[in-house]
Write a structure and sequence with these properties.
By secondary structure, this protein is of the alpha/beta class. It has helices spanning 12-25, 36-50, 54-75, 79-101, 106-130, 140-143, 154-167, 196-206, 236-244, 252-261, 311-324, 347-357, 383-392, 419-430, and strands spanning 2-5, 29-32, 135-137, 173-177, 180-182, 188-190, 211-216, 221-223, 233-235, 264-269, 272-281, 291-305, 328-334, 338-344, 361-375, 400-402, 409-415. A hairpin with a 6-residue loop joins strand 16 and strand 17. The longest helix has 25 residues, at 106-130. 41% of the residues are buried.
Length: 437
């Protein structure tokens, strides 16, 4: 069984692309974002409503109604379905018009937002019915509950959704709105947008899916373009190590939950729904290099001892201050006189770091750096892989090399201006193509 999650749907053409992708993948659950245009209007309503500009709020609601009816005319052409969809639109609009008349508060604002999310999902549900699919909206606002720590209450969700599934066994596809839920007090709420992938993975675990397809922004990932899965497959361990090192791939709990539930994760780009970019599962293909990931906005820092503290105490002091300011260390190398690190931190944080350590070490800072992670089965005994990597980078200035901390990652740090040249050289060496512009 399969779950598909889509990240952004901007216009009518993208709605059609999503429908085509759904027909190709045949998922049992589809998790959809609110349409981009509706999201923009939703923000306009919040602004005008909190400024007590009721006329502007009502005008925006009317614009939403007109837009949705136009989409229905273009995408839901079967007369009975079209009429039913327009009746649903009018119901939503009547409810939202009433809500904007109420006194402004955050709860009512969330309720308005939830209604627009549901409207967006219903529209896609009717589009699928137009294609002959027995689709049913799964109102996650009723079933998805978060606990006091704002994490999904999986046992509660599992019990409530199971009953709903039992009542709708003739459904081909359940269509769920993304991120909507209720809190422990039963109020309408939303999971953070940065946790969208986790929201979908929770649903996948509850529906006992064996695969989840996540459409996400992954233009920093480079893999073999011949689409052979064996050459762009990561294990849960490899993916988890990447995320923990600061690489933006998925929300970390996605990997933990997927591994526990044995759900394979397929990543596709939001601009190319048909091409699988990465595949994450328990299976290790054993390929030497599976993917290359880039990480921008990093800073190279070299700490040279002023001989105030012995080496072991200096290292302890550095790590103590880094922990104090919760600075992410991407990679690190040391010698008997200095310690070099690739960090992700703001300029203000770096200044505080320098202020606390100026008595113990001289700091040399080089900003505008990029980190390239070469992912695969890179155990030290595979000497041929190491030699190929080193031969590839011989003409490119590299600030820091990190190798040996993991059997799955070889990390290179370069100036951002050299990033694309390095990625292209590595792509030609290991994938036989050029990936970066």
């Amino acid at each position: 069984m399969k779950v598909c999650k889509f990240e952004k749907i901007k216009d009518e053409d993208e709605i059609r692309q999503v429908i085509n992708c759904i027909q190709k993948e045949h998922p049992y659950v589809v998790v959809l974002p609110v349409l981009t245009r509706l999201q923009e209007w939703m923000q306009d309503i919040s602004v005008s409503w909190f400024h007590e500009e009721d006329e502007a709020s009502h005008a925006t609601v009317n614009a939403i109604e007109e837009y949705c009816c136009t989409l229905a005319d273009h995408l839901v052409t079967e007369p009975q379905l079209n009429q039913s969809m327009k009746a649903r639109i009018q119901e939503y609009m009547k409810k939202i018009h009433t809500l904007v008349e109420d006194k402004a508060d955050l709860l009512i604002d969330k309720i308005i937002k939830a209604e627009i999310y549901r409207l967006s999902t219903d529209l896609l549900t009717y589009c699928l019915r137009q294609q002959g699919v027995r689709a049913q909206t799964l109102d996650t606002g009723k079933f998805m509950q978060i606990d006091l720590e704002r994490k999904p209450d999986i046992p509660y969700i599992q019990e409530s959704i199971r009953r709903y599934i039992d009542e709708n066994r003739d459904v081909d596809i359940f269509v769920a709105p993304l991120s909507i839920c209720k809190n422990v007090y039963g109020e309408t709420d939303f999971i953070s947008e940065s946790h969208n992938d986790y929201y979908a993975t929770v649903l996948a675990s509850i529906f006992k899916a064996d695969e989840i397809v996540l459409s996400t922004q992954i233009n920093h990932i480079y893999a073999n373009r011949n689409s052979r899965r064996e050459q762009h497959s990561l294990t849960y361990t490899e993916a988890g190590q990447l995320i923990n090192s600061g690489v933006h791939l998925l929300y970390a709990d996605c990997i933990t939950l997927a591994a526990r539930s044995n759900i394979a994760i397929r990543l596709t780009d939001i601009h190319d729904l048909t091409t699988e970019r990465l595949y994450i599962s328990s299976h290790d293909t054993g390929d030497s290099v599976k993917a290359i990931l880039s990480q921008d906005s990093a800073t190279f820092v070299r700490f040279t001892s002023l001989n105030v503290l012995p080496g072991y105490l200096l290292m302890g002091k550095l790590l103590e201050v880094i922990n104090k300011y919760q600075i992410n260390v991407v990679s690190m190398a040391s010698s008997n006189v200095s310690i070099s690190m690739m960090l992700t931190a703001s300029s203000d944080t770096l200044r505080m770091l320098q202020r606390e350590l100026h008595k113990y070490a001289e700091m040399v800072i080089d900003e505008n750096m990029s980190v390239i992670h070469i992912i695969g089965s890179l155990h030290w005994e595979r000497t041929q892989v190491e030699s190929h990597i080193m031969d590839t980078i011989k003409d490119i200035p590299v600030s820091l090399i990190s190798y040996g901390g993991s059997d799955h990652c070889f990390t290179l740090s370069v100036h951002t201006t050299d990033k694309n040249r390095l990625i292209n050289s590595l792509s030609r060496q290991f994938f036989g193509n050029q990936c970066a512009a």
